[in-house]
Amino acid sequence: MQDENTASFGSALGVIWDGVIWVFQNILMSFQNFAYAVTHTSEWLDWTNKESIMRFVYYGGSVEFFFVIFTTFLVFLIIGIVNNRFMWGCVRGLEGFANGIGRFFAWAGLLMVLQQIIIIFIQRVFTRPDIVIGFGIPLQFDISWFAEELKLYNALVVALCVTYTFVQGGHVRVDLIYSAVSFRAKRVIDMVGSMLFMVPSAVLIWMYGWFFMWRHLIVPKPSASDQLDRLLAKSRALRWNVETIGFSPNGFTAYFIFKILLVAFAGLVFLQAVSFFFRSYLEFKEGPESEGKYLDRDSLGEGEEAYEGVH
After folding, report:
1. Model pTM score
2. Which residues of the chain have pLDDT under 50?
3. What is the phi-psi region of residue 301: left when phi exceeds 0, alpha when psi lies from -120 to 50, beta otherwise?
4. Which residues, 6+ apart, have CB-to-CB distance to 128 below 8 Å?
């Protein structure tokens, strides 16, 4: 029995060791993969070539792409540990990007309200079955098309304003421990949370969302289990087949946009996880006086107290 336990333990260690070697090999290979991608852009960006499209599909959800991103994060982290000003620059850039995207697409909420009002007036007051927009060759759709299209505005707000809301501190936070611990303990919790929860969630959503998106844009439909040679073989019959099927006969027909937004959501969450990790590390290192440093939060005119902690 003891020999069996020893053998099982040794086998487990062997698996772990093989996994560690695999990770380091992929990290080292990521430099070569990145250099090759940059110097051979026509192989995956020349979409007049069907094989290039399939390479783009494959690499967008591949292990190689993940390790290029992961290695880039490690390189930036190492540089930032040596030079904190560089890391603060990354934080400001990533948070500024999240704020910019969020502030722009937050206007979709207003558009949603205005369009709903127009739909009510057209349908109830003027008793029209459709809405015509434009001159010459107008854009004309049934009322039900515009009614279903309201979901797109909601999706824009949810998917593209999520990191903006995070930066602004707008998400509901429920905790039993966080509020009672010290400043540096909070920063440790934030660092661990960003790496153990935000990053894996974003990666999983991206991996599934990426192929889910492409399955509604092209045929033959790619699969996450397809290897590159299999996708290249499929490219011979490749053609664009963008999803234009609505849930009702005259309803909204651009549901493929929701698949694109799912991928965009995952990418934004991943970038914000990196930004949050960097900020938490810097605040942990520099102490309470650095809390909220360079943080660009919106104000509704509350006065100077709204900017407290911003340096």
Report:
1. 0.88
2. 304-311
3. left
4. 122, 143
